[in-house]
# Entry
Amino acid sequence: MSAGASEGANSGAIQVNGEVLDVQRTGKYFLMSVTAPGITERARPGQFVTVSMGGEESSMVLRRSFAIQGVQARGMYGGTLDFVVSPVGKGSQWLTKLRRHDPVNLVGPLGKPFTLPTKPVTCVLVGGGYGAAPLIMLAQALRERGCRVDTIIGASTEEKLYGGLELKRVSTSLTLATEDGTAGIRGRVTDCLIDTLNSSKVDVVYACGPMPMLASVAEECTMRKIFSQCSVEESMACGIGVCMTCVLPVIGEDGVTRMLRSCVEGPVFRGDRVRWADIGTIPEGTWGGERLRS
# Structure
């Protein structure tokens, strides 16, 4: 794959006070639209924002991280930004209860974006659950570069699928998969990916979703010597590389494994460089591993 250089992670991040424009329920999730002037002009596919939880008097100190689904840099509200929320914790549940014109504080854009090809190539996008959200912005960018974009999204059941209508509009083709067969093909997205890789010429695969899915995607691509980029779903407590809670082992170009921060060096990594089976550990031979273990 011929790829251009990506921008430095977090180099253009700013903090802004925005306001909620809309909160829409979509299946198991909520789509939030907020004003975010300054962030929208800088955002690239694959980056994320962190959002302050609970208001000024809240005891919820840590921000929450959300992948950017799309931006509009101009309009009557200035820059606006969309992201999807899965209301599984106290903070995310609070966020989904906000209403139009409620204030919201954001920092972004954060993280390393997907690397885009410099010439038209054939791309396959793979999303699991609400991990499909950042693929919408990515698909738009790839189509603008003349790329073919075949998208595969899946979930355990139909109500956990996300972004089907939006991705259908911006993809050359869209395949749905659910493990229980309630929508699309019965099975996993990786099953559909294997069929695609075996039957078509694919130049690059982009993926975002649960870690087991990403590990399988990366393995299938590496076996076939296909370039893959995976946006990992690691918990990010600070979002700016300070707390070191989102580290994972990644092999560098020099062959040395280092513990890299998902929020700064990621969340997008080359699929063949992540040591998927060793996530959650500091593998033997990791650079600085003894010091990190102490």
